[in-house]
Amino acid sequence: MKKAFLLLLTGWMTSGLYVTAQQRQYTMAEATNGLRQQLAPERLKLFEWVPGQNAYSQVVIANGSVAWIKNTLNGSTIKTDTLLRLADLNQQLFATKPLRGLPSLHWISADNAWFSAGNVLYKGTLQNGAMQFSRWCELPEAAENITVNTKSSQIAWTVKNNLFIRTADGAVQAVTNDADENIVNGKSVHREEFGIDKGIFFSPQGDLLAFYRMDQRMVKDYPIIDWSVTPAHNNNIKYPMAGGTSHEVTLGVYQPSTQKTIFLKTGGPADHYLTCVTWSPDQQYVYIGLLNREQNHLWLNQYSATTGDLVKTLFEETDVKYVHPTHPLTFVPGKPDEFIWFSERSGYQHLYLYNNQGKLLKQITSGDWLVNELVDVKQNDVIFTASKEGPMEKHIYITNYRKPASATPFVRLDKAAGWHDAQVSSNGSYVLDTYSSGTTPYVARITATSGKWEQNLITAADPLKDFQRPQIRPVTLKADDGTPLYGKLILPVNFDSTKTYPVVVYLYNGPNVQLIRNTYPFSGNLWYEYMAQHGYVIFTMDGRGSDNRGKAFEQATFRQLGTVEMNDQLQGVAYLKSLPYINQKKMGVHGWSFGGFMTTSLMLRHPGVFQAAVAGGPVIDWSMYEIMYTERYMDTPQENQEGYANANLLTKTKNLQGHLMLIHGTNDDVVVWQHSLDFIRACVDNEVQVDYFVYPGHLHNVLGKDRVHLMQKITDYFDAHLK
After folding, report:
1. Sign (positive/negative) of CA torsion 692, 698, 703, 704?
2. Do residues 599 and 609 make contact, with C-beta atoms less than 8 angstroms apart?
3. How far apart are CA 681 and CA 684, in angstroms?
4. Which of 483, 195, 549 is nearest to 349 (CA)?
5. What is the reported pLDDT for 129?
């Protein structure tokens, strides 16, 4: 069947159609780190709502002075008070070693707040419109995962593998005292999959402490070499690889008043996953989404916080491929027996209202779109962000979930196209809406949830207005099953359709990542624009397996990572070849991490399509990648021998045509260095020439000033082989 390609020139605005003589090109440093440094748009600084008030604090810089201010919303006006200037704070507390900037201010109540400077915490009180701070406590220099509970004034932290708590009276208690460093307490577990980003969970009143305990003793050591010393030093980590022995996680509940810990009786097998940890409002129970290692069966369980006993299973979720829980329960204020649950059971991630007996009361959201975040819950209303307007957009909505579905329209709280994030005031009356789009660098505004008032706070000027900007065309293609695929085509500056140009395809195309969004800059990356300034066409597209398109779109790659994704990317290649201004003999491809796997796969499984490729931090053999991620998408190597064999690039080096360079950080603890080293060994064994470069001491990403070197290295490689 003849392939049809649809080029959409409407919907999103293109940028930089014209170049003036005054405009200049990026330096490599600007193209690499500029958006995080000198070319970053103006943004709201350290915003935080004040609890119990229609007010917020932020940091402002004016006339060379840096200050915390408090803005109080009063009808249609905003009253501003200066809380404390940096100069005054330094005079109060840091005369001998002044702070260079103000830290984040965290409100305890309407009149009290705290901040940290290093391992020292400070507490302040609002007096006569100004903040007065004093030293609160000093934690050990090695303290990590510092967690402050504002209700109880208790503080928890970890040192190495153990957990500690400072009670409100200043006493420090060792919650755990495990001598074996491979028993880890109070830290995130399961390699931060399943939305897990912490291991400390204070109860609602802050007087009880739940925590993860991860036993890694049964997991094989993996060496990470520190090359910065002579002789080099080995640091072993625990890295559970697909199909191998995994760590075992339990959840403890510590009571500071008795200094006793009980562990929830989550049962076996011991290598299951403990997700969605949530306290009940009355502190009597802890809820856990218990997921089997196969990741196709979840039990939402309620456990006694006093005895650790399983009280009941509220409900179960199953899927023939996988269940992917990533959100805790959110209890309804004033309704301690009701909570909101995220689920993809309909094919898209939506919100469901349950009671604590496990009865489904209502599906709150539905449709062929998904909820991104649950921002705020009140007794009658929920505020959430969602892809309702399309997968390249994210907008803010409010709905009354107590009314019948036919009478509860979703009211959109923002007005402009783009990608919106929201923070809601403590009483739910106001929303901070921050967003960008392809033509809008950054806007911050506050709107009343009633829709009757709004105030713009910042509309950032375009920091790229003095640069040559390329024309960018949105592209919609079709997968082989008819699924729409969204991408963008970035044309060279001073584009001439009668000429031909080399092209570089940048890709990721893996789970949980979406490249094509209506955000600033519209290109998505200034290095793409740099390449366009130097005569390249850049193409990027999200194929099946990518994020924010629903379960079927993501699960299309199940048990065959790389295969479906390459089919989709080759649709993009066919589209490029249909364009008269593309030099089909000068085509390159580049990606990092999963994108590095995709890049190498395209060169070996579809040889001859690309003449040059750069693969960074690539997965080469999925049996060497970590359990949680790999087994979700591929099952185990024992269960899916064919899928692992098809994706294994070590056996395909003889297929290489064209030029391929692999790049790896020597201290990569995500995709370990052995992936690319084994690949080089296979190339040598098969007498295949390949290019290789390493960044000593760098982890999975090359960051900081060395990233400029990295991007120059990649650019030079494409210049050498595509120009």
Report:
1. negative
2. no
3. 5
4. 549
5. 84
**Number of continuous H segments (helices) and E segments (strands) in the chain:** 10, 44
Tokens 């030093």: give the residue. 233
User: CA 107, 109, 113, 114 torsion: positive or negative?
Assistant: negative
**By C-alpha distance, which of 486, 454, 488, 455 is closest to 470?**
488
Instruction: Look at residue 407 in the predicted model and tell me its pLDDT.
Output: 66
CA-to-CA distance for 419 and 453, rounded, in angstroms?
Answer: 21
Nearest-10 Cα torsion for 590, 391, 382, 78 = 80
For residue 262, list its beta bridge partners. 253
If you compute the radius of gyration of the chain from its CA atoms, what whole number of angstroms results?
27
One-letter amino acid identity for 22? Q
The confidence score (pLDDT) of residue 16 equals: 41
CA distances to 14, 19, 153, 463 from 24, in Å: 19, 9, 54, 13
**pLDDT value at position 617?**
98
Residue found under tokens 């999103």: 12
Q: How many angstroms from the chain centroid is the CA of residue 256?
A: 34
- State which H helix or E strand residue 338 sits in: strand 335-343
pLDDT of res. 403 = 87
Pair of tokens at residue 229: 């010393």
Bridge partners, residue 503, by sequence: 537, 587
DSSP 415-457: -SSSEEEEEE-TTSSEEEEEEEETTEEEEEEEEETTSS-EEEE
Long-range contacts of residues 134-140, Cβ cutoff 8 Å, at least 24 apart: 134/93, 135/93, 137/166, 137/170, 139/166
| 86 bridge partner residues | none
For the chain, helix, strand, coil in percent to 5 are 15, 40, 45
The pLDDT value given to residue 12: 37
User: Which stretches of the chain drop beneath a pLDDT of 70?
Assistant: 1-22, 405-408
Cα gap 430→453, rounded to integer Å: 9
Identify which of 288, 245, 253, 252 has the alpha carbon closest to the alpha carbon of residue 269.
245
> What's phi and psi for 587, nearest 5 deg?
-120, 130
Which tokens is 280 given? 């009940």
Strands 172-174 and 162-166: antiparallel
Q: Which residues contact 404 (CB under 8 A, 6 or more apart)?
A: none
**How many alpha carbons fall within 13 Å on the CB side of residue 661?**
18
Q: Do the Cβ atoms of 392 and 420 come closer than 8 Å?
A: no
Determine the pLDDT at residue 5. 29
Please tell me the pTM assigned to this model: 0.95
Are 669 and 224 in contact, with CB atoms under 8 Å apart? Answer: yes
Q: What is the pLDDT of residue 22?
A: 63
Q: What is the pLDDT of residue 509?
A: 98
Q: How far apart are CA 216 and CA 626, in angstroms?
A: 14
User: What pLDDT, on the 0 to 100 scale, is given for residue 409?
Assistant: 84
Q: Which positions are catalytic?
A: 593, 668, 700
d(CA 447, CA 244): 51
- pLDDT score recorded for residue 660: 98
Question: Which residue in this structure is represented by tokens 């609160």?
Answer: 136
Residues near 63 by beta carbon (within 8 Å), at least 6 away in sequence: none
- Cβ contact 436:443 at 8 Å: yes
User: What six digits make up the tokens of 396?
Assistant: 């803010």
| Contacts (Cβ under 8 Å, ≥6 apart) of 95 | none
The C-alpha torsion from 49 through 53 and 59 to 64, rounded to 10°, is 170
Torsional class of 79: left (φ above 0), alpha (ψ -120 to 50), beta (otherwise): beta
- Do the Cβ atoms of 338 and 318 come closer than 8 Å? no
